[in-house]
């Protein structure tokens, strides 16, 4: 595949330019686009996981999950969790993944920069920076801990003014997978659901160790295949 010629030019490991201080200049994509390859959503996607995590346990009982959804998930997001199924049809969409020239991709119409690769994962970042989160409720803090790639990945002390959203794409043979996370949280004083669902991300491998007493996290992990046609 043509774009793979570009990947060895990247340093090994994971490369980021996701965190910036106030005086950093924004990164602008001004290159003309040449599409090298295109990948389209498959016909169905797999529900890999639907579970509730606490500091001490993981619960996948459907009745317990249904009760959690009824009590803690916002009304407009309840139908985004798929109970009792292992596969669902992919909604009709014009979304596609284009690999472009100069270490870039375009997904859902947004140009992004290939930042690096690790194992079977390619990491891409938006050119437009987003403001770093500031404070908020215990639920807002917990929501930011769930995905592996979040505003604090490269700025753990929060001492950055902006960050570039980083998205992982999984290599699946000759094709790709967009990992979709949908999640909601409950703490001792609030409940909240991710506002933009699903997120293209993977679950934080250290999630459970970051949970406190009274914290519960509902996570749904779905694999959306992106197939070359």
UniProtKB/TrEMBL annotation:
Keywords: Signal
Highest rank taxon of the organism: Bacteria
Signal sequence extent: 1-17
The protein, known as: Lipoprotein
Organism (species): Niastella vici
